[in-house]
Write a structure and sequence with these properties.
This protein has 206 residues and is an all-alpha fold. It has one domain (7-204). 62% of the residues lie in helices and 0% in strands. The protein has helices spanning 7-12, 14-19, 23-38, 46-55, 65-77, 85-93, 106-116, 125-131, 142-165, 170-179, 189-204. Helix 3 (23-38) packs antiparallel against helix 4 (46-55). The chain is globular. 31% of the residues are buried.
Length: 206
Amino acid sequence: MKWKLDIQKINSSCLRIIGNLKEESLATYYFINDQWSNGGSVVDNKLFQFVFRSFYRIDNAGLTDEFKNRYFALMEETRSKAPNLREICETLHGIENAKGSKSLQFSFATKLANTINPLLPIYDSEVAKMYGYKPPLPYKPLSDRITNLLQFHEHLACDYSKIISDGLLNPTIDAFDRNFPNYTGKIGKRKKLDFIIWSAGKLRDK
């Protein structure tokens, strides 16, 4: 298989991986999800925007206010339909960053899509690291880069489904539930995988 997660290594390191997670991160995610579901338009919800930007570190990415405003407007526009990651990436790519250049923000696009549909996995460098995935170099054509990233994202979605259906990471998910009993029924298994694999990636090189 081209991209493969080391299931055995995660399960054998589950206590360390779960111990690396903070309950405040789960509480913040739950707040974001609750606000999205019940808080009306996120375009007008400045608290939602502030917490979202802080949680997902959007304010640390050298992006402009124009980008951030368009990002949340696009999130609201996509509320009632299936997120199209290619269209989201292309739209946001058209907005220059603080250095005056255009950038592909695929990770932030998946975080937007995950807010709308929590069944969609989040992509970031830590997840990519755990699967041995190397994103395309920035000098390649935008369309080709997006296609490559979408292929990996689809692989993630399929692999998460298999992990859950076959119970491959049940020991680690059980450790997650024991450590965070207040969120056992509030956060779905796919989101738990997002947290688990991200945490494993953060710890991998330590």
